[in-house]
Amino acid sequence: MTSTFLPQLTVVVPTYNEKGNVRPMVELLGKTLDGLNWEVVFVDDDSPDGTAREVRAVARENPRVRVLHRIGRRGLSGACIEGALSSVAPVIAVIDADLQHDETLLAGMFRALEDDPELDLVIGSRNVEDGSAGSGLTAMRKWGSDRANGLARKMLKITASDPMSGFFMIRRTAFNQVALDLQKQGFKILADMLSASRGRWKIKELPYTFRERHSGDSKMDGTTTLEFLGLLISRLTGGLLPIRFVLFLMVGMSGVVVQLAVVRLALAAPGVTFFWAQIAGVFVAMTSNFILNNRLTYRDRTLKGREFLRGLLSFYAVCSLGAIANVGAAEAVFRVLPNWAMASFVGAVMGALWNFWASLLVTWRAR
Ligand code: GDD
Ligand code: MN
Fold first, then answer.
1. Would the CB of 164 count as within 6 Å of ligand 1?
2. What is the mean pLDDT of the chain?
């Protein structure tokens, strides 16, 4: 084996339903990276449109192309992490498949890392001079994106101007420092990496204009925004609470509101006693918690059809045992330390922990 087989640069491209963008992407990479020893790895989460199959077809014609076909998993951040870890190159880039990021920037990013050995990370940025969101974002997305940017920079103490960017190039040594710390769930791997780097990195930002999507649809939605809030809170706790648990707690809090509303409504009906109103409230709240967790907290393994029903029943069972754990723990604390608020709070924490772990292992167990 000669060193010419070793790539200097691995370009990681996360894909979900991006079949129509694979070929154009590889062609554009070839043009801009001409002269470099590069490879591209498409990390596909078993897209229903057959993106992985398409990548294999292209790879048979071009040895620079690889596929990492993930089964039973979903998530942009996790895909980028695994793609980076699958490479031996000293430099890794991440770029979206839909041609919204200006790939011609890659050559300049690579040169910047070559020229300055101290440099750890180069970000393709929409918020520095000459960079812009262009026409690639709707007015509402642009507004939301700006708010999220401000929030992340404040809360995560990030100085880079566009931590929401999904377009960057990083030295492997830097990536390895934080790889174990990163959250696999969520959309914002750059913000997570910057936060995990705790200001240790030398960073450069290069401007570019965000383009229109080439083919297919965006996967960004309300859920990704909540996931992002989860990431912020998770980072504030120093990573102690994973994103999933933060989302689970958010859903749990919504359940309290639902329960109170149902009890209030039920009591308004003639002849309904508090006992039955409370039972109705608990059941509706458990059901809405299940539906929300299924869509949000466990969006990477959403249960459908018969699985949905099985999941709902097991979730009822899990929550009933959680209630027992809750009362038991509160009792035990109260006996030692007769402070009702403290005892009740400990009970609630125990109940939440039980519900989280048990539902993770039973209701939404990974297959
Ligand atoms: N493997 C995998 N799994 N890939 C995914 C998943 C997933 O669950 N979800 C999305 N992707 C891929 C898409 O196929 C695409 O290549 C890329 O990730 C970005 O997804 P889009 O749906 O196109 O996101 P966007 O255009 O709304 O937002 C992008 O650009 C923003 C601005 O730079 C993302 O990169 C954002 O993180 C970024 O802030
Ligand atoms: Mn996009």
1. yes
2. 91
Cα of 231 from ligand 2 centre, angstroms: 20
Cβ(314) – ligand 1 distance below 6 Å:
no
Residue with the larger pLDDT of the pair 337 and 91: 91
What CATH number labels 9-217? 3.90.550.10
Ligand 1: does its nearest atom lie under 6 Å from the Cβ of 220?
yes
Rounded to the nearest angstrom, the distance between the alpha carbon of 76 and the centre of ligand 1 is 6
Q: Is the pLDDT of residue 1 over 50?
A: no
Annotated domain spans of the chain:
9-217, 243-363
Query: Is the CB of residue 208 below 6 angstroms from any atom belonging to ligand 1?
Result: no
What CA–CA distance (Å, rounded) separates 185 from 64? 28
- Which residues, including other chains, have CB under 8 Å from residue 203's CB and lie 6 or more apart? 119, 120, 121, 122, 123, 159, 160, 194
Q: How far is the CA of 302 from the centre of ligand 2 (A)?
A: 23
92-115: average pLDDT: 96
For residue 187, what pLDDT band results from cuts at 50, 70 and 90? Answer: confident
CB 332 within 8 A of CB 316: no
Angle at 259 between CA 254 and CA 260, to 5 degrees: 100
Query: Tens of pLDDT along 150-179?
Result: 888 888 888 888 888 899 999 999 999 999
Among 42-46, 50-54, 145-149, 303-307, the least confident range: 145-149
251 closest CA partner among 207, 189, 315, 303: 315
Nearest residue (CA) to ligand 1, atom 8: 75
Q: What is the pTM of this model?
A: 0.85
Ligand 1 atom having least distance to the Cα of 98? 16
